[in-house]
Specification:
By secondary structure, the chain is mainly alpha-helical. It has helices spanning 3-22, 25-31, 42-64, 69-92, 96-118. α1 (3-22) packs antiparallel against α3 (42-64) and α3 (42-64) runs antiparallel to α4. It is elongated.
Length: 127
């Protein structure tokens, strides 16, 4: 297990989640969930904020969970959420390019977490 990588993924995820909770347009715009003027509708903002909170909570869990089963569980939750996002957003976002980008980003973050779980820990010399 590469704990440092998992902590980095968790911290990045938590920060992104806080940002989306505060500014839902950070997710709405690249996802195509805006009106013709590029504005995020109130209902869309309301819908995206819980997603941001989920990102923040799962990322924080990865960032602070003790090494071992707790960190493995937090990471498994993160992987499941990312793969769920890939499946759902890959089928439902407007536009083929946006769907493909959402899948790539979601699967990419899941892959980083999988690598962090499965890669052997380096010894103290960095090998």
């Amino acid at each position: 297990m590469r704990v440092g990588l998992l902590r980095m993924v968790g911290t990045a995820t938590a920060l992104y989640g806080v940002a989306v909770t505060a500014w839902p347009a950070l997710l709405a715009r690249p996802s195509g969930l805006v009106d013709a003027q590029g504005r995020t509708e109130p209902a869309t903002r309301v819908s995206l904020r819980p997603l941001g909170l989920r990102e923040a909570a799962s990322g924080l869990a990865m960032a602070v969970a003790p090494r071992g089963p707790a960190l493995t569980t937090a990471t498994a939750l993160r992987i499941a959420a990312d793969l769920g996002d890939a499946g759902l957003l890959g089928r439902t976002l407007p536009g083929r390019e946006r769907r493909a980008a959402a899948v790539a980003v979601s699967v990419g973050w899941a892959a980083l977490s999988v690598v962090g779980l499965l890669a052997p820990e380096r010894d103290r010399s960095g090998r």
